[in-house]
Amino acid sequence: DIVLTQSPGTLSLSPGDRATLSCRASQSVNSNYLAWYQQKPGQAPRLLIYGASSRATGIPDRFSGSGSGTDFTLTISRLEPEDFAVYYCQQYGNSPRWTFGQGTKVEIK
Amino acid sequence: QVQLVQSGAEVKKPGASMKVSCRASGYTFTAYYMHWVRQAPGQGLEWMGWINPNSGGTNYGQKFQGWVTITRDTSITTSYMELTRLTSDDTAVYFCARGASPGLVTAFDIWGQGTMVTVSS
Question: Residues of A at the B interface (Cβ-Cβ below 8 Å)?
Fold first, then answer.
């Protein structure tokens, strides 16, 4: 199975800062089938980005995804207070099996 | 609206089995794959398997083959995930999640609220 490695483990930033999260795959992700999720404590994950760069319904445009092959990035252009959470990448191109990264926590500095 | 509602929290003894339900509403249940994902306390997300609600076909992660069973009842638009031979390592929140579009190769756009399962003697 593809292994996804996210970095950094924790990102300490202030509201208004730009956040850049990385997700690296152990092998190329088919057709860039890479998604990003946001999870807050006690809640289910929320889909942000699919297909590496397409925003899911209702997701603000301060969230953007980029990358291809084995290297992917989630960028939050200006952090809002509600954006402090844990973010996971997920590949779904190597079906029939899906894998997640270990997560990046974005915390208030 | 589209939603997935899961059954309530459970406490199980080691060696027992558990079965979590996930009732879908607001969309055509048979048109979208259903996945199950778990999250141990303080840990990340772990994909367990999927079911095609139309055909009943399933596929499981290698780790779970032989001890997880995902089923569905189309008459009540509900999917079930059963895990046997529980150990303390199975203490986790279990989520169901819908494939974001018809077809297998897709992310998960709708999630259940999660079901906390605690395995303790």
Answer: 1, 31, 33, 35, 37, 39, 44-47, 50, 56-57, 88, 90, 92-93, 95-103
In this complex, is the C-beta atom of B114 within 8 Å of any C-beta atom belonging to chain A?
Answer: yes
Tokens representing B38 are 């778990």
pLDDT tens, A31-61? 889 999 999 999 999 999 999 999 999 999 9
Between CA B109 and CA A76 the distance in angstroms is 20
CB atoms within 10 A of CB A38: 22
Chain centre distance of CA B40: 14
Backbone torsions φ then ψ of B94, nearest 5 degrees: -110, 130
Q: Can you give the length of chain A in residues?
A: 109
Q: Note whether B25 and B2 are within 8 A (CB).
A: yes
